[in-house]
Amino acid sequence: MANLKRLGKETLIYGTSTVLARLLNFCLVPFYTYYLLPGEYGIIATTFAVVALLNVIFLFGMDQSYLRFASEQGNKSVVFQHCFYGVLLNGLLLSAVLWLFAKPFAGLIGIGTEHAGIIHLAVWVLFLDVLNMIPFTKLRLERKPWYFAGVRTVSIIVNVLGNILFIAYLHKGIASILWANIFASLASLLLLSPIIWQELRRGYCGFNRRLYKEMIGFAWPFVPAGLASLLISVIDKPILVHLAGLEQVGVYQANFKIGVFMMLLVSMFDQAWRPFFLAHSQDKDAKETFAKVFSAFFALGSWFLLGLSFLMPVIIQSNLFGHFHLIAPAYWGGLSVIPLVLTGYFFYGLYINFMVGPVLTKKTRVLMWITLLGAGVSITTNLLLVPQIGIIGAGWAVALSYASMAAALFKFTQKVYPIRYEYKKLIGMLFACLGTALIAYLGRGEGYFSICMKVILLTLYPLWMWLILRKKGIKTTPSIS
Q1: For an engineered disulfide with 313, which of 5, 13, 335, 443 has Cβ 3.0 to 4.6 Å away?
Q2: Measured between alpha carbons, how far is 13 from 92 in angstroms, rounded to an integer?
Q3: What band does 45 get if pLDDT is binned at 50, 70 and 90?
Q4: Which residues have CB under 8 Å from 117's CB, separation 6+?
Q5: Are 420 and 287 in contact (CB under 8 A)?
Q6: Beta-carbon neighbour count of residue 326 at 10 Å?
């Protein structure tokens, strides 16, 4: 029970910085569109999409390798040095290539060769970000969430102030956003430098070829898996362009972004979960603990799923903010996409729970195939459903792709690291979730009655979860939440 309480506490601490980062990305959109022309904002959006993909290649899964090997290696400094120098060398080589071929690369991604300077700034963003990742991962492994959250918070503040300064006051245009990110990464690197020097000043431990080969073998499957995971999030847009038109893509994307609130919960949990199960994998009751964590996540995650699905469309269409709405009325035709996107992210949370199997058994290559499965389901579902039901089909593609990934990873984990999950309780919670959703659907409509009914259902839902979980004295929901 103490371990579960600690996991819940660390989830909240890690989540503080994660929430700020996600909300920054969400809230700066109106700011960017006010100060930048649509074409300029398109350049930045395209650049950061490419940066997200390249970041996976720059890091090369070495953060995951550090988590795995440092948790079992006697001399953790050896692992840190191999990971840090590895990403440093990889970053230098890839940065040099991008810098030299910035002009053709800018043309290749569609922003125009005249914006090669944007690529040069993006190279700095990539290089500095990758240098921050290994010390950040060390903080997670050593269970120092306050240090982690503090550095992330300072970086976010620097990013926000940098955007305001460069865009609103200095009028530096689209380069301002990249400069703000560079200074934010530099601030993080400065605050993390004591950790870096602490590990490097112990003296170079020498290159251990066997260890590094094992680390690379463990890490590389995270690269195609990470790329495929990103494809799941972006592949629906180009498909929608051809099948439904640009206007429908805009409606879909505006409502798709509401899913960030569910993704926040999953990201918060993920930050604490992986170090947690690595630290307790040798406990006698490890599998029992992991089963209880899964039940607790299902209870809390399904509550968030229902709450956001019920209330976000109401909030978006309300007059709480006067004439201002979170999404303009022209986009309300896509509100029905929101529950499907939220469901997809809920399934992704279940997928994160099942990550315990391949990580602890070092069989991470399966993640690449499972994520490719998710990408394949997303593409197939979009192609089949979008011509029939429009953007709702794209929403179903999100839900089904993450559901297929969760199911496949569950099957694999049960094969290599079987866990007796609390199936009777999970079935009870599933029926409670579906029953609550059905009642809300039957009572749908406009007016205070529908809203009050949804609020009552959401208020009672934690009680149903608690009654189900307490059958054997498990009180995990309050600990996680």
Answers
A1: 335
A2: 33
A3: low
A4: 102, 175
A5: yes
A6: 16
Query: Contact at 8 Å (CB) between 113 and 107?
Result: yes
Q: Could you report the per-residue pLDDT of 242-296, keeping only the tens digit for each?
A: 676 646 655 676 677 777 788 878 887 887 787 788 877 778 888 888 888 898 8
**DSSP three-state, residue 111:** coil
Query: How high is the pLDDT of residue 313?
Result: 83
Helix (H/G/I), strand (E/B), else coil: 206: coil
Asked whether the predicted pLDDT for residue 480 surpasses 90, the reply is no
Tell me the H-state helices in 390-447: 391-416, 423-442
444 sits in the region (left: phi over 0; alpha: psi -120 to 50; else beta) called beta
Residue matched to tokens 């926000």: 160
In angstroms, rounded to a whole number, what is the distance separating the alpha carbons of residues 132 and 58?
12
- Determine whether 2 is exposed, middle or buried from the number of CB atoms within 10 Å of its CB (0-12, 13-18, 19+): exposed
Task: Please give the Cα distance from 227 to 372 (Å, whole number).
Answer: 9
Supply the pLDDT for residue 150: 82
- Residue of 184, 150, 154, 191 lying closest to 166 (CA atoms): 184
Query: What pLDDT shows up at residue 205?
Result: 62
**Phi and psi dihedrals of 244, rounded to 5?**
-130, -15
Q: What is the pLDDT of residue 253?
A: 66
**Burial state string for 60-93 with b = 16 or more CB within 10 A and e = fewer than 16:** bbbbbbbbbbbbeeeebbbbbbbbbebbeebbee
| 129 and 122 Cβ atoms separated by less than 8 Å | no
Tokens 């039957």 belong to 442
Return the SS3 of 159.
Answer: helix
Q: Which two tokens stand for residue 105?
A: 């690369």
H or E element: which one contains 196?
helix 175-200
Burial class (CB in 10 A: 0-12, 13-18, 19+), 444: exposed
Q: What span, in angstroms and rounded, lies between the C-alpha atoms of 334 and 248?
A: 9
Contact between 427 and 471 under an 8 Å Cβ cutoff? The reply is no
Q: How far apart are CA 318 and CA 333, in angstroms?
A: 15
What is the C-alpha to C-alpha distance for residues 60 and 90, in angstroms, rounded to an integer? 8
Residue 4 · residue 249 · CB < 8 Å? no
| CA–CA dist 311, 74 (Å, integer) | 50
One-letter amino acid at 22 equals R
